[in-house]
Amino acid sequence: MITRKTAIIEVLRSHPLARDIFAKHGMGCIECMGATTETIENGANMHDIDLEALLKELNESYLGK
Questions:
Q1: Contact at 8 Å (CB) between 27 and 44?
Q2: Whole-structure pTM value
Q3: Backbone angles phi, psi at 8, to 5 degrees
Q4: What is d(CA 7, CA 43) in angstroms, rounded to the nearest whole number?
Q5: 7-11, 26-30, 35-39, 53-57: lowest mean pLDDT where?
Q6: DSSP secondary structure string for all residues of the chain
Q7: Each residue of 2-32: pLDDT tens digit?
Q8: How many CB atoms lie within 10 A of CB 18?
Q9: Separation between Cα atoms, residue 49 and residue 1, nearest integer Å
Q10: Is the dihedral of CA 62, 16, 38, 40 positive or negative?
Q11: CA 40 → CA 20, 36, 61, distances in Å?
Q12: How far is Cα 55 from Cα 27, in angstroms, rounded to an integer?
């Protein structure tokens, strides 16, 4: 399960659709240095993204729902 404390880079490496989901939610800097050290929560806060909506979509996609 992907949580608010999961590192962005971990999700990008393990989840093929994550890049598209992050971009859809406005997190365009997924290739920046921050992606290697930041959590999903930090990234969402920095970009004023609805964290719960992002996590829901990532997990639904990740779990195949």
A1: yes
A2: 0.87
A3: -55, -45
A4: 9
A5: 26-30
A6: ---TTSBHHHHHHH-TTHHHHHHHTT-TTTTSTHHHH-BHHHHHHHTT--HHHHHHHHHHHHTT-
A7: 999 999 999 999 988 899 999 999 887 666 7
A8: 22
A9: 20
A10: negative
A11: 14, 11, 16
A12: 13
Closest CA to 25 of 38, 15, 40, 36: 40
Residue with tokens 């990532």: 58
The letter for the amino acid at 64 is G
User: Is residue 49 packed enough to be buried (19+ CB in 10 Å), middle (13-18) or exposed (0-12)?
Assistant: middle
